[in-house]
Write a structure and sequence with these properties.
The protein is an all-alpha fold. It has helices spanning 3-12, 16-38, 45-60, 65-76, 83-98, 102-115, 119-136, 140-149. Helix 3 runs antiparallel to helix 4 and helix 4 packs across helix 5. The model has no long low-confidence stretch (mean pLDDT 87).
Length: 150
């Protein structure tokens, strides 16, 4: 039997109790992996990427908004310059906006626009800023300045 046939047989021919046991085992492995990832320092782009992916997993799969927000916050303030830090900063800014922390969200997005080296992230931050400033701060000169930077 080939490996794919073994897998099919194992999962499609298993009893509900066996499937539940497999699920519990897989969930235990996920928890172990999460603990290891959370113990990583934020001093390399690889570590920051792993932590960012975990934050996204926590947000989208576990619906752990506070845990994801806390991890985004830590990543947004790390000193390792990499795309994952920029993504964490954008995500953190969007989460703050969604939680009504408008001024802090704007500050974070301005940091992305001014500090990140990747122009794609700068442009994305400026797009969000333009939209958010129109909603929260209808000052036409401020919005015009952001639109000009875009």
């Amino acid at each position: 039997m080939t490996d794919s046939m073994d897998w099919c047989y194992k999962y499609f021919m298993a009893t509900p109790d066996e499937l539940l046991a497999n699920l519990n085992q897989a969930l235990a492995e996920v928890e172990k992996a999460k603990k290891v990832i959370l113990s990583l320092s934020r001093d390399s782009s690889e570590s920051v990427r792993a932590l960012y992916r975990l934050a996204m997993y926590m947000l989208h799969e576990e619906h752990n908004l506070e845990g994801a927000k806390d991890l985004f916050h830590k990543l947004a303030n790390c000193t390792t310059k990499c795309d994952s830090r920029a993504e964490a900063r954008l995500s953190y800014g969007l989460m703050m906006w969604a939680h009504g922390e408008f001024d802090n969200a704007i500050k974070m997005l301005k940091r992305v626009a001014s500090e990140e080296e990747n122009p794609e992230y700068q442009a994305l931050a400026l797009d969000y800023l333009s939209t958010f400033m129109r909603e929260h701060n209808p000052s036409k000169p401020t919005v015009a300045k952001i639109d000009e930077q875009r």
